[in-house]
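Internal ticket #5521
Category: modeling
Description: The requester needs a full-assembly model to guide mutagenesis choices. All entity lines are attached below as received. Residue total reported by intake: 278.
Assigned to: D.W.
Attached entities:
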Amino acid sequence: MPTLTRVFIKTGLVYFLMAMVVGVALAAPTVIHLPQGFAALRPVYFHLFMVGWVLQLIIGIAYWMFPKLSKQEPRGSTALGWLVYGCLNVGLMFRAVGEVLLALQPGVEIGWTLAVAAVLQLIGGWGFIVNTWLRVKER
Amino acid sequence: MPRVSVWLVRAALLHLGVGITFGALMLWNKGLPFAPVLWTLYLPHIEMLLFGWTVQAIMGVAFWIVPRFSKEPRYGRVRLVWGAMACLNAGVLLMVVAYLLNSSPALLLVGRGLELLAVALFAAHVWPRIKPMSDVLPP
């Protein structure tokens, strides 16, 4: 299993756990009193799960198992693969932190964190598509 | 990778690209608001990433890797999968158009119905291929 695949899958597992922790936190107000802003964590929960876990698991497996591109670059660009990893994860962290801060202090000017998160995740997602497209081929 | 898997995975990648672009626009707009109308992309974003990307990519990879039959046709009834692909993409696109145009509920019903048909066709195809390895050739 290539290094990049292992890193994607292990990072994905960490996000899986984080998503489940946030899921428990979202369920907690049914039992104990928590601030109203807690509900704002719902999009964070979904994206930790779907981007952090599901998408990164798929990317890691695809990088490993899809047909080889060529003898020189069997798995496409490794550098682009690492860029995808960096952009998706830094973007997701910006998003998680930004959403929480916005929920806790709505008036504070931290909206730029979500804009940065949007750009980074967009680059990460399209980077994966570009790196994978030519490997999706008949033998 | 067999031809129908190539088509399914590439179509899934296109849905991923459009879906994350919708998501990035909304996320930027959430942090630094500039066009409230972008919130109309919320349901298309979910539709494209859940059905267009995740479901379709899984179908493509499943067709490729689940055990084949020992006799021709070794992939089973492939036409069912082509039908599933057509129904799934038509269904997702109809749902997206219906959400964007805020059109009649009938269009949503047809879109969801096509997605249901896609799942039924794919299940009918893959069901007999889910069997012990002793009955099939290794993939």
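Resolution: model delivered.
Comment from assignee: Residues 3-133 of chain A form one domain.
Ticket closed.
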